[in-house]
Amino acid sequence: MNNLISAFIGALISIMTMLNGTLANKLGNYTANTLIHTVGLFSIIIVLFMRKSKVKFDKSLPIYLYSAGVIGVFTVLFTNLSFAVLGVSIPLALGLLGQSVTSIVIDHFGLLDMQPIKFEKRKFIGLTFIVIGICVMIIF
After folding, report:
1. What's the farthest any 2 CA atoms get from each other in the chain?
2. pLDDT band, very low/low/confident/very high, at 93 (cuts 50, 70, 90)
3. Rounded distance, CA 93 to CA 133, Å?
4. Cβ atoms of 103 and 97 closer than 8 Å
5. Is the CB of residue 83 less than 8 Å from the CB of residue 20?
């Protein structure tokens, strides 16, 4: 079930990238980014209200755990910038490469309080296929 949900998320990210990029082309990157995150904020407020959940902050948590929102803003901004030139598939493919390499480094060294999961050669094979796929997409 989790694999199916993950595949569905991938489809949603492709649709989101197209919608965000088109909005950025029409309104400008900064206006679009502001609107995208404002709509997201109102959406989660509605979900919280419907579920009768409360937002909780824990001062004992490291501050970097709260930085994902900033990363999200720059992710949308940079994706919108590249969307205008590269379309949907290339930024997503390059993003997958960046996610894969970064997650391997985080796993291998146990960064950000993660349990170390050592790099295995089979992961290099997967990365090689991703790079070959990106090259094929860019060249053809």
Report:
1. 51
2. very high
3. 8
4. no
5. yes
